[in-house]
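Case study 2.
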Amino acid sequence: MTSTGAEGSEPISIVFADDGLVPNNPMPFLVYKSAITLDRDDPATTIEGVFDMWRNGVYDYLHYHATVHEALGVASGTARVRFGGDQGQEFELEPGDVAILPAGTGHQCLSASADFCIVGAYPPGPKMQVTRPTPENHARAMKTIPEVPLPATDPVHGADGPLTRLWHRAR
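Prediction:
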């Protein structure tokens, strides 16, 4: 059973502007601080109980996904990650934090501890593609991002969670 550390709490919510290379999204990027109470012996498995796709880190180069939304849960270690592109905002991510990126949100790992581990997921639908910020990719992304379906639930708080309300309102 998975428990959340911030039951019903509102996430940090930021709408990043399109910078001409990274389109970002009019739907807000969300960060739930200390959202998941982790099992000390196997923290990644705890997050996989919330959403299960892959374990890894965050690429150290600026990129975005123009065909899918993304959820990232920190299982171990810490990292400084910039979201929103070069003009975006940096966050220190810690175990139990969850970041939810609407399609098109730029992200890049600036530094990470040796034990940093993310469990990530994408909602069902189109295949994830890593997109680098170029004028040509930006033009294509402006067509695909509005077509990405909204997730049915908030991966942290379920069908009635903040993501569902905030993203439906923004779209």
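Residues 135-144 form the longest helix (10 residues).
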